[in-house]
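Thought: the user asked what ParB domain protein nuclease looks like in 3D. I have the sequence; next I should run the structure tool and report back without guessing.
Action: structure_tool
Action Input:
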Amino acid sequence: MFNIEPKTVELDSVDCTDHTFVVSCGFDLRPLRDSLQTLGLLSPPLLRQLPNGSRQIICGYQRVMVLAELGWPTFPALVWPADTPDVRCLLASLHDNYLGRGFNPLEAARMIDRLLQHFDSDTVCRIYLPPLGLPPSPKHLGKYRSLLSLEAAYQDLVAQRRLVVEAAALLSQWTALDRAALLPLLHGLAFSHSSQLEIVEFLTTLSRRHGSSPAFWLEHPELQSLLQDASLSAPEKINRIIHRFRQWCFPRASRAQQQFDDHLKALGLYHHPEVRLIPPPAFESSSFRLEVRFQNQAQLRRLLHHLQELSQRQELKAILSL
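Observation:
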């Protein structure tokens, strides 16, 4: 069966709405279209014959889509017989993508969902997560499965890699109304992946701590004022939004950090090129750390003398009492 020669098939005989083995999404057809127009079809799609005379796509969904756009009435394809088992077709789709362009996160989630229809979760973890580019762990299995519970708008962001999987998995635990409240913020500002995760974690923490909803905090007047401030650039808005969420989540640590920064500025050590005073994490202990950068003995003596002078200042005493 695997040595079947390509045959010419009519495009009209292919059921392009049958996605039994198709997981492709979030793709850009332009590079493939350019390749087909320039070089032709280099790799024939793989189809399965159906008893009703039509054919379903196993591998090569995007190629068939472009061929339809270009108006090809026929094309060469490998055609497996109707009695080919579903699981064999699914594994062919998995390995075709694995050896080719790979999977975006949503495609990986869809493939995991299909595989679980044929194999137990332990088998999927051990054998099939690695070809999807994922560690073979139940944690990753659950994280990717949760993506399929999100609305189409969020799935599109995941497929386009504009929303990090870790943040999307946390969002699957929110209500649909809360996710809808967050979506304009994600569309309006280009948050980094780490910032996306921070914001979702902040909102989740605030909601649990105060018995409110993420939507409540997203609609907060102070946050809305920041978003509507035309004097701020997009990066400035992002920084201030994250700072505001951090203040709401950790008010005592945020106040201590602000006081620490103010005292550093008064001492002339804020962003100092040679001296760095590092506070304890969340100011939960009394252990501060001092880093000094120097190139020679004279420079070191000068810095130590300067630090000796600063050690008598009230601002340093205030820092150590935070």
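Thought: the tool returned a structure. Summarizing for the user.
Final Answer: Structure for ParB domain protein nuclease predicted. The chain has 16 helices and six strands. The beta strands are 7-10, 46-49, 55-59, 74-80, 275-278, 289-292.
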